[in-house]
Design a protein that fits this description.
ATP-dep_Helicase_C, seven-stranded parallel beta sheet, about 45% helix, hydrolase activity, acting on acid anhydrides, in phosphorus-containing anhydrides, ATP-dependent helicase, alpha/beta, single chain, 4 domains, about 650 residues
Length: about 650
């Protein structure tokens, strides 16, 4: 077996690396893989040599490739070889945890590549912080709850976490969401990291699961796999972490691959989001007042706290509920903007006062740094809010506190500067990157000015393997009855895709009063990879989901029917409302492109191999059929049969 730090081919001093790489890739796809039982695919070979140019010239490339083209093998092969050549790992950024699982699971693409090419690949996962248990939340909850799932998680925390005298040699990685598959999403939120946690001041920080896992993945030699959200968090926090004497979340890489790269813009917006929790500012400033500070500082703090409370009272009173979203819509009045402006001025004053307080050496440097960091964060968020048309805003509320969220409306300028100005191979891979072969929309939204592109169609004969049925919804109750009949006819073995969690829960409420001769699995009841694994191995189950439009890969008889409960239009939440507000034709520029892209992704869940077959059912209202029938028919791989 080839060691994981050596190239799988030789390069003499007089030879060019890329010429030898091209020879090796040709051997892999023309000889080695076919000898191991893999089909020789012209589409795969064409894509491979397109990617070679992107790596050679260190350029961005949009590699659009349909299902079954073997695109994952292609980008993995180039990324691994180039990583070993440069001595830096490649970053594989996936849309979500489900896609990550497809790569690293037993029998997944990386393991297949290892076996086929006799390689030992060093691959490590860099998961987002929400994927790790938070000891600051878990420990106190475990001491007062009777929730057995939470108690079981607490029981599995290693002893060294509680025993600070334990030697470093006995430390082990722990705390990954995947280690506790029995925990529902609702319960996990109670014990997992969330944006309100102040990790820099946490007494558990050196023993936390995310800290220990971070130390592990940094030393990867071939691949580091993360989510788009995590990659963007790395980009936006890189400089501030360096200033604070911390390492960036990810090490320097040789290349970056964005799998399902069409979703990167949403992750970039999310990564640049500012969250202002009502309790957090009060806590920081109250802590400041507890230090030995000057009287002038105390007066400014009191003014900020008063304005802050008045501001949040106004936000809570005027925020409106948005159906299908946990984001409360805010309509900023002149009064709100005026208070925000006064708050901004007072925070600037306090930052100046902090300099004087620090010079008196009455506050520890550590506390000065924490207070200054938070005030600058708060100040920058307010500056976005005070500029016209630069931000998207909403309010989130739970049982204990309110959080104002500020997200930049456009991210292309920041991405252009912070990401795509670097001379690196950036590989975008997906079946849905272009609009009718045109990549300019995606490139523009990401700030990419120079790029290569290629499109490769799926090799599958959809006409023989798939039928698509269109259904008109007369009423919700009638739709559920007919949808249930479709599940019975298929004896389970179906994926039902919903446009939102609320829609799935409406179906679940109805389905709970029916009798099913097969298992009904619902997203959120347990860790997602466990749910998918149960579905794949059951062979007569139904999987209900609102997120698995992308990334789900279940070949074979376990999935022979995909039912799309409603057209997946974007929600009416503040993010998409902002996009609509700045579009000349919101329906044609925002709603329909999003729906079509997601619909194409959902249909792509059915046929994953040459042997797969089955039916697609798409449910629409009469109005949707009237308005969007032709658009939908144009992008379908086979003719739609209307029922």
């Amino acid at each position: 077996m080839i060691r994981n730090n050596s190239l799988p081919f030789t390069v003499a001093k007089t030879e060019n690396f890329f010429e030898r790489l091209g020879d090796y890739v040709g051997d892999v796809f023309y000889d080695i893989l076919p000898e191991k039982g893999y089909e020789l695919r012209d589409e795969q070979i064409y894509m491979a040599f397109q990617l070679e140019q992107a790596f050679k010239n260190k350029r961005a490339i949009f590699a659009e490739a349909g299902v079954g083209t073997g695109k994952t093998f292609v980008y993995l092969l180039y990324a691994i070889c180039y990583a070993r050549y440069r001595g830096k790992p490649a970053i594989i950024s996936c849309a979500d945890e489900t896609l990550i699982e497809q790569l690293v699971k037993q029998g997944g693409d990386i393991e297949k590549l290892e076996k086929a090419l006799d390689l030992s690949i060093d691959v490590r996962l860099a998961k987002s912080r929400e994927q790790y248990v938070c000891m600051k939340k878990l420990d106190p909850i475990a001491n007062q709850t009777d929730n057995q799932d939470i108690l079981n998680v607490h029981d599995e925390i290693p002893d060294f976490v509680f025993d600070t005298s334990t030697s470093m040699k006995s430390f082990e990685r722990y705390g990954d969401r995947k280690e506790y598959p029995w925990v529902s999403n609702e319960t996990w939120e109670k014990i997992a990291w969330d944006p309100l946690q102040q990790c820099s001041t946490c007494e558990w920080r050196h023993l936390s699961g995310q800290t220990l896992n971070r130390e592990y993945y940094r030393h990867a030699t071939d691949l580091i796999i993360c989510s788009h959200d995590f990659y963007m968090e790395h980009v936006w926090t890189k400089e501030s972490r360096k200033r604070e004497g911390q390492l960036p979340l990810l090490p320097e890489s040789s290349s970056v691959v964005f799998d399902e790269g069409h979703l990167l813009e949403f992750a970039a917006q999310k990564g640049l989001t500012y969250r202002f929790n009502f309790e957090a500012l009060s806590k920081v400033l109250t802590g400041y007042m507890g230090q030995d500070v000057r009287e002038d500082s105390l007066y400014v703090i009191e003014d900020i706290l008063q304005l802050h409370e008045e501001w949040f009272d106004l936000l809570r009173d005027t925020a409106a509920v948005v159906e299908g979203s946990n984001r409360l819509e805010i309509a900023f009045s002149d009064n709100m903007i005026e208070i925000a402006g006064r708050l901004y001025d007072k925070v600037q004053q306090l930052l100046e006062q902090l300099v004087f307080d620090a010079e008196l050496f009455t506050i520890e440097d550590y506390h000065v740094k924490i207070i200054e960091e938070y005030l600058e964060f708060f100040s920058y968020g307010l500056s976005i809010l005070l500029k016209d048309n630069e931000g998207i805003y909403w309010l989130e509320e739970n049982n204990t506190t309110s959080t104002l969220v500020i997200m930049p409306r456009l991210v292309e300028e920041v991405l252009k500067k912070e990401v795509f100005s670097r001379k690196l191979p950036f590989i975008f891979s997906s079946a849905t990157l272009s609009q009718a072969g045109d990549f300019t929309h995606l490139a523009g939204s990401l700030g990419i000015e120079a790029y290569d592109s290629c499109s490769v169609a799926s090799p599958f004969d959809y006409g023989k393997r798939m039928t698509i049925n269109g259904h008109i919804e007369a009423s919700l109750q009638e739709k559920w009855i007919k949808l249930g009949k479709q599940l019975h006819e298929n004896k389970g073995k179906s994926l039902v895709l919903f446009s939102s969690m609320e829609e799935m829960n409406l179906f679940r409420e109805w389905a709970g009063n029916q009798t099913w001769p097969f298992s009904m699995l619902y997203e959120g009841d347990q860790e997602i990879s466990k749910t998918v694994r149960d579905f794949q191995t059951n062979h007569s189950a139904v999987l209900c989901s609102y997120n698995l439009w992308e990334g789900l890969d279940v070949p074979g008889n376990a999935l022979t029917r995909v039912i799309i409960s409603s057209l997946p239009f974007p929600p009416k939440d503040p993010v998409f409302q902002a996009k609509r507000k700045h579009a000349e034709n919101p329906e044609l520029e925002v709603d329909v492109p999003y729906m079509v892209l997601r619909l194409r992704q959902g249909i792509g869940r059915l046929i994953r191999t040459n042997e797969d077959y089955g039916e697609i059912d798409i449910w629409m209202t009469a109005e949707e059929v009237k308005n969007h029938k032709k658009t939908i028919e144009r992008v379908m791989p086979v003719e739609v049969e209307w029922q």
